[in-house]
């Protein structure tokens, strides 16, 4: 199980502490010895963090955990998820949930900005001084990414994260795993950008799965994408190394029968075709924007028998030809950020 640095266990209780709640009692209720927070080597597991967040919710009657002027009533997250589940796509589900939260409270304003290849979610706190460590704003951004992953049934790529404050050197080692993408600090906004292609997928969750997820909430929302152990992720990593690998090769490498592989992926709401297309799309856009390789060479590396097939697929993914994409996004057309 993924673990979390003691820093986050400490700062997540700040809102409750300011409200006069006995934080040591909250920690013990979550199965955490208060002394552990003073041990520089201690890390707690994700389950313990979820229990602590639930303890804070119950103690304050506030899902905003004391970081805003007004409480967000218990049950708001469950209702937002129900609203999102009704969306025809993951992106639409997120927009529905965002509208709900913006109507329910003016303390946090959340906005979705859509473009061709990404959907950015930006947050603005009415009274940011109530969250001096920025714990809750980071948590809030992460929740939107995790909700997108849950609705999609797979890890949705986070393309960029922007923060209107300096790099948090004190906890950056942990921070970079929570935001596994290029990061910009001292920016004009506080936002994450996700892969719009993945968000156009239909919502792959049922009401029964929602009920199961809510029983342990917010545990499912706290899993770190890099710790994803699903078969879909294993296949994605394998194809990222060799996009031309066929279904039989993937199945053999995983010691599955091809039918078993297809069935297991289907149970996760995915398929080999979908994963392969996503991998090819991502590799193609990176190669076109970041290298001088020819379209023919890129097509061959991705397993296309001829460039025309690759061009047709690329147009379906992006709405433009490979040459037009390179002209618009290639090296020299923008700043490439390092992770």
Could you explain the architecture of this structure?
The protein has 339 residues and is α+β, with helices and mostly antiparallel strands. It is 50% helix and 10% strand. The chain is built from 17 helices and seven strands. The protein has helices at 6-11, 14-18, 23-29, 46-60, 76-85, 90-104, 135-152, 172-178, 196-199, 207-215, 231-241, 247-253, 258-267, 272-290, 295-301, 307-318, 322-329, and strands spanning 3-5, 43-45, 108-114, 118-125, 158-162, 183-184, 191-195. It has a five-stranded mixed β-sheet with strand order 3-4-7-5-6. A two-stranded antiparallel sheet has the order 1-2. GO terms for molecular function: DNA-binding transcription factor activity; transcription cis-regulatory region binding.
Computed structural class: alpha+beta
Basic shape: globular
Gap from first CA to last CA: 24 Å
The helix content is 40-55%
- Sheet-strand content, in percent, reads 5-15%
User: Rg to the nearest angstrom?
Assistant: 21 Å
Q: Could you give the order of strands across the largest sheet?
A: 3-4-7-5-6
Protein name: AraC family transcriptional regulator
GO molecular function: DNA-binding transcription factor activity; transcription cis-regulatory region binding
Keywords: DNA-binding, Transcription, Transcription regulation
Pfam families: Arabinose_bd, HTH_18
